[in-house]
């Protein structure tokens, strides 16, 4: 089961990456602080953006879905949603967005859209999980805003920028999502 290739929210378009996005990807990847919590090359060069797009395009969308996040006609970040169990009961998602767009609710909006579509489209999806560096306050705030609960910390489980870092793990269960939808008066 795959989610739609194109998803529209109030302000965003989530769509597959295209090779024509290379300049936008390089632009957001060049913003201050973007790479701080990501296992990406430093310096991030234009050919890295092209390689990233090629890898995103080649993913098997039946288990690894990837979207460019388009805001006001420009790609400003990306989001991945990967099924991590063979029976599609567990999914994991990750994201990044350029620094000029931090604190604007963009990742919460995109995350809610993917969370909702995941639970609605994949009938036996039981759990959506993610993790981040404990120092990445922005990411764990996004997870909390979209209804995920912190489940614990894995010590030195991330290797980022030549250093080991602790990671907070978050998840939302189908039953928790259904409660959120019920409280909001939406159908699950």
Could you walk me through the main structural features you see in this protein, from its secondary elements to its overall organization?
The chain has 188 residues and is an alpha+beta fold. It has a single domain (7-183), classed as Gcn5-related N-acetyltransferase (GNAT) (Aminopeptidase), CATH 3.40.630.30. The chain is 30% helix and 33% strand. It contains 5 helices and 8 strands; from the N terminus they run E-E-H-H-E-E-E-H-E-H-E-E-H. The chain has helices spanning 22-29, 46-58, 106-121, 137-145, 174-183; strands spanning 7-8, 12-15, 64-71, 74-83, 90-97, 127-133, 149-160, 163-173. An 8-stranded mixed beta sheet has the order 1-2-3-4-5-6-8-7, with helices on both faces. Helix 1 (22-29) packs across helix 2 (46-58). The longest helix is centred in the middle third of the chain and has 16 residues, at 106-121. The protein is globular. The two termini are 18 Å apart. 30% of the residues are buried.
Give structural attributes.
33% strand, 5 helices, alpha+beta, 188 residues, eight-stranded mixed sheet, Aminopeptidase, globular, 8 strands
Estimated share of beta-strand residues: 25-35%
**Weakly predicted, low-confidence segments:** none
Strand order of the biggest β-sheet: 1-2-3-4-5-6-8-7
Order of helices and strands: EEHHEEEHEHEEH
Number of helices: 5
Any idea what the CATH architecture is? 3-Layer(aba) Sandwich
CATH topology: Aminopeptidase
Tally the beta strands. Answer: 8
State the shape: globular
